[in-house]
Design a protein that fits this description.
283 residues; alpha+beta; 31% helix; elongated; 7-stranded mixed sheet
């Protein structure tokens, strides 16, 4: 079973210069780390946790205790650097408490050796589940999004290879939206309006405009077993629908259905346009 975590690398009180030094050391010396130093030099995880409880009054569920107790060899950890690039590590050794005299030392006492599987990934090449997890919550937590776990395993060479008939089930909802958006822009000679792709536009995913100015286009995308129940007839523009389950309203009322085969062919013919979250599944 693939266990995926994410670790925030901006400790409280850590300035940007120190954080950059910490990240540089982590990437070049192959370790992941977090802070919460104690006065003693604990040799075991439980010694550290007891000392941290005394020093900081930490709860059993605190992020640093989870980092020390629950992370194990073979687990995966995502981080983001000061430039907004993403990096994926696989843990290769046990927990250790390290007293490091460098400027970032107090922010990196809890450590694990690792191997960096992927580095310098852009947001487009990183799953939305990982990106969202790194923006929310405490310092250290599990990534439970199924698409993110599959993508992580794929980057590590663990996931079973996929042919074009199964890629659409593997890529996750956000990547499926990306695929439909790219397909429509090429197929219809249209451009996507970036500000239209927001959660507030619940009825559809985004708006496109034809380059010749003849019409606006909206698209609705459903992943998994979700069915499209709204043909968007109230929206005064050209409408395109795609449901991974193949379930559509009986009355399309003029809406256009995107065929699965069209998306599969597009993936194979335009690999260079695809984000890494899709491209990694293609042979």
């Amino acid at each position: 079973m693939t266990t995926v975590w994410r670790l925030k690398t901006k400790p409280g009180g850590c300035d940007d210069k120190t954080r950059k030094s910490l990240l540089t050391a982590m990437l070049s010396e192959s370790f992941v780390a977090t802070g919460w130093h104690v006065d003693s030099a604990p040799k075991t995880v439980e010694d550290y946790c007891r000392a941290a409880e005394i020093h900081y009054g930490l709860k059993p569920s605190s992020s640093v205790k989870r980092f020390a107790r629950e992370l194990v060899e073979g687990d995966f950890v995502w981080i983001i650097d000061v430039s907004g690039l993403y990096h994926l590590a696989r843990i290769t050794g046990p927990w250790s408490y390290v007293q490091d005299g460098r400027s970032f030392g107090v922010y990196a006492v809890n450590r694990y050796a690792c191997h960096w599987i992927a580095s310098n990934l852009s947001a487009a090449d990183t799953s939305s589940g990982v990106r969202n997890a790194l923006m929310q919550g405490g310092a250290f937590c599990r990534v439970k999004d199924a698409a993110s776990i599959s993508h992580t395993a794929r980057l590590a060479g663990e996931a079973v290879g996929a042919d074009q008939q199964s890629v659409l089930e593997l890529i996750g909802h956000d990547a499926l939206e990306d695929l439909v958006g790219l397909f429509l822009q090429i197929a219809l000679d249209a451009v996507l309006v970036p500000s239209s792709s927001k959660q507030s536009t619940a009825a559809y995913e985004f708006v496109l405009k034809r380059r010749d100015g003849t019409s606006d286009i909206v698209a609705q995308v459903k992943s998994g077993q979700a069915s499209i129940t709204d043909n968007l007839s109230a929206v005064p523009c050209t409408r395109y629908l795609f449901s991974l389950s193949g379930q559509y309203p009986e009355d399309l009322n003029g809406a256009n259905v995107i065929a699965r085969a069209e998306l599969e062919t597009f993936m194979l013919q335009h690999r260079e346009l695809l984000p890494g979250t899709i491209r990694c599944w293609l042979h």
